[in-house]
Design goal:
- There is one protein chain.
- By secondary structure, the chain is mainly alpha-helical.
- It has a single domain, classed as CDP-alcohol phosphotransferase transmembrane (TM) domain (Four Helix Bundle (Hemerythrin (Met), subunit A)), CATH 1.20.120.
- The protein has seven helices and no strands.
- The chain is globular and about 55 Å long.
- About 3% of the residues have low confidence.
């Protein structure tokens, strides 16, 4: 039972991620859309809790499985990158006729919002995805050489900031669509998530250089 529980939590997170994406795809501005975003917010929080419990039980019982090593980080990446990608969908764009979005956010500089009610822009998703590709490449190379590549503090902070930003976007759009301070806070959280992502990616550049130098030696 001890061996199965962490993997069961990972599988549960996969199911939650699927439901989360469906809700984001169904979202449309308005009262019903707000309900969908609130449910999506709850699912994301539960998924985050399962991630924490997964790691806790794996460490407590000293459990390492091939499935967990592959599936756990994969689901984390899909959940975060997928969430940011879906927040750039057409259903999160500004439309003048949709009063639920509010006039305030439409007056903000284009470079801040990119005409997105979520404030998540396409280039941000590219930056986030690029970081994940870099980390996956370094991890794959290191492990092929028999070198362990555990999660770093920078990576954990990045994941936390990204998750806070995603939850912040969902909550603001659902419950505080026309409140200036909430909109400003959302924008700050999204940009902090991008900065944290880029910063953690740069931290891994040192790992790449170290791997290349070791290969040359």
């Amino acid at each position: 039972m001890n061996w199965k529980l962490p993997n069961q939590l990972t599988i549960a997170r996969i199911v939650l991620a699927g439901a989360f994406f469906v809700l984001l795809g169904l979202y449309r501005p308005g009262a019903e859309g707000a309900i969908l975003l609130n449910v999506a917010f709850g699912l994301y929080v539960v998924a985050g809790i399962t991630d924490v419990l997964d790691g806790y039980f794996a460490r407590k019982w000293n459990i390492v499985s091939a499935f967990g090593r592959i599936a756990d980080p994969f689901v984390d990446k899909v959940l975060v990158v997928g969430a940011f990608a879906m927040l750039t969908g057409s259903n999160f764009c500004f439309y003048p006729e949709l009063q639920a979005i509010g006039d305030y956010e439409q007056t903000l500089p284009h470079w801040l919002t990119g005409e997105m009610a979520s404030s998540v822009q396409a280039w941000m998703v590219v930056a986030i995805m690029s970081r994940e590709f870099i980390v996956s490449a370094v991890r794959g190379y290191s492990e092929s050489q028999g070198i362990k590549f555990p999660a770093t503090p920078a990576g954990k902070i990045k994941m936390f900031v990204q998750s806070v930003a995603i939850c912040g976007v969902l909550y603001q759009l659902a419950n505080l669509p026309n409140v200036p301070w909430a909109i400003n806070t959302k924008i700050i959280m999204v940009w902090l998530a991008v900065i944290a992502t880029v910063a953690s990616g740069l931290a891994y550049v040192g790992q790449i250089r170290k791997a290349i130098n070791s290969d040359k030696d």
